[in-house]
Amino acid sequence: MSAVRVIAGYALQEAVRRRVFSVVLWLTTLFMALYGLALWQVFKRVADIHPPNGIEPRPFAGATVFGLSMFATMFLGVVLGVFLTLGVVGGDAERGLLQPLLVRPVSRTQLLLGRLVAAVAVCTVYVACVYTILLLMTGLIGGWWPDRIALPAVELAAGVATVAALSLLGSVFLSATANGIAVFIVFGAGLVAGLLGSIGEALGSGTLKTAAHVASWALPFEALYQDGLAKITEHTAGFASFILKLGPFGGAHAAGPLLGVWIAGYVLVVSALALAGFTRRDL
């Protein structure tokens, strides 16, 4: 495990040298400032919001705005995770950075695991911090708090880690540019599946709902996001629950207790495929 820690440390030092964290910090701060401005304006005019009958304006506004913030948090975390992993194999091999590492007593397994650990650690901390700050802003400015607080943050972090694992797998077979494009297309496909689920829910279409459900489990970061959205209004019932669970950028659907097991198995399979491909790759 010492070699894994060394590789993870090397990946973090490389990100610092390239000023990745500085750029992320400044852009995230800008996003939070804009979110705070939006919150202030929304809740300043909350009395002018007229949701469907039976729904209180403040919970409606709070759940909608915070749902949007959850999407933004996941998206920013995915961007960070992808750029930390998109060139782990293909990009570093093209630049001649892999060969000196592998000449030393570092196996390919340790190299991949170290880079994945570094990316997941950074993204997990980032998502947790951003989620917490946006949660506090929503509660303190808007006076609305989600029904569940910790679990949605865990699910967003797990979703970002899943995308990072997919990006690591893609880096074994694709160049950095092609891998980045492919991963973001896959991420977009997951979001489209969520939107289809919302449309199917609104129209009562069983076909659309089934297709969206299958797609969200095939791309489980979307299932995690949907479950997180469901958790923030977990104790809301009736027509209000139906409206709020249509959700921003994908419907809110509780995934059940098997989601965690599925995610763990999914990441293990993706990592095993990445290792198998890396082992057979000629550098």
Short description:
This protein is an all-alpha fold. It has twelve helices and no strands.
| Apparent shape | globular
Tally the helices.
Answer: 12
Number of strands: 0
CA-based gyration radius: 20 Å
Strand portion, in percent? under 5%
Question: Helix- and strand-based class?
Answer: mainly alpha
Share of helix, binned: over 70%
What is the distance, rounded to the nearest whole angstrom, between the alpha carbons of the first and last residues? 24 Å
Average pLDDT figure = 80
Which stretches are poorly predicted, pLDDT < 50 over at least 5 residues?
Answer: none
- Main sheet: strands, sense, barrel: none
Order of helices and strands: HHHHHHHHHHHH
Please, could you describe this protein's structure?
- This protein has helices at residues 2-17, 20-44, 57-85, 90-94, 98-103, 108-142, 150-173, 176-203, 206-218, 220-232, 238-244, 259-280.
- With 283 residues, it is an all-alpha fold.
- Helix 1 (2-17) crosses helix 6 (108-142).
- The longest helix has 35 residues, at 108-142.
- It starts with a helix and ends with a helix.
- The relative contact order is 0.14.
- The mean pLDDT is 80.
Key features of this structure:
79% helix; single chain; 0% strand; mainly alpha; 12 helices; 283 residues
Question: How are the SSEs ordered, and which strands pair?
Answer:
Layout: H1 2-17, H2 20-44, H3 57-85, H4 90-94, H5 98-103, H6 108-142, H7 150-173, H8 176-203, H9 206-218, H10 220-232, H11 238-244, H12 259-280
Helix pairs in contact: 1-6, 2-3, 2-6, 3-6, 3-7, 3-10, 6-7, 6-12, 7-8, 7-10, 7-12, 8-9, 8-10, 9-10
